[in-house]
Structure formats: C-alpha cells, structure tokens
C-alpha cells in the first residue's frame, strides 16, 4: 500500500478525520488534499525532466534518489570496484629442496 499503511490505519485516520473535521467538510478536504498531491507529483516530474535536460548527455538514467549524497557515493564506489584494474602478478619462488636432506 501507499507509505506502507494498512487498512486498519486508513480506517483509523478516516474516523479521526471525521471527528476533527466533521463528516460534512471531510469530502471537500479530501478532494483538496488529492489535488495538492497531484500538483506536487507534477512539479517533481517536471523538475526531474528539467534537471535531466540541463545536465545534458550521459544523465538520461538519472533518478531523484541518485541525488542523495549517500546514494551517490555508494554508486561511485560500486562503479570503481566493478572496473577491472590490472593487478601486478606476484611470481612465487620455485620450491627449493635442500640437498642436505636428500
């Protein structure tokens, strides 16, 4: 469900809303709240699209969660770890047999 809210919580919020606002004004307030949510989603979508456009090529897969500093650092470290860097080969010395033991 939305924000991990179950049916019991929604029912409790509806009852609390009827008590605080009143049953006659509750539908109007619910419609206004839905309009605000729709408007906020539209603004967020538009801002993300403008950001992608202004950043230019290479940022087509940009997500808003990528702008979080923690996520950004984790992604950069993961990219660095995925790159194959040539590791110096360590040559092991051949086993030597002591001639006195023979």
Automatic annotation (TrEMBL):
Pfam families: TatA_B_E. InterPro entries: TatA/B/E. Residues 83-102 are annotated as: Disordered. It is found in: Membrane. Keywords: Membrane, Protein transport, Translocation, Transmembrane, Transmembrane helix, Transport. Its main location: membrane. It is a single-pass membrane protein. It comes from the Bacteria. This is Sec-independent protein secretion pathway component. It comes from Actinobacteria bacterium BACL15 MAG-120619-bin91.
């Amino acid at each position: 469900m939305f924000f991990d809210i179950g049916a019991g919580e929604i029912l409790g919020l509806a009852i609390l809303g009827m008590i605080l606002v009143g049953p006659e004004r509750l539908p109007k307030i619910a419609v206004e709240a839905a309009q605000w949510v729709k408007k906020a989603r539209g603004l967020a979508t538009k801002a993300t699209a403008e950001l992608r456009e202004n950043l230019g090529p290479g940022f087509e897969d940009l997500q808003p969660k990528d702008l979080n500093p923690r996520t950004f650092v984790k992604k950069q470290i993961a990219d660095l770890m995925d790159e194959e860097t040539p590791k110096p080969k360590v040559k092991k010395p051949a086993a030597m047999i002591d001639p006195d033991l023979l």
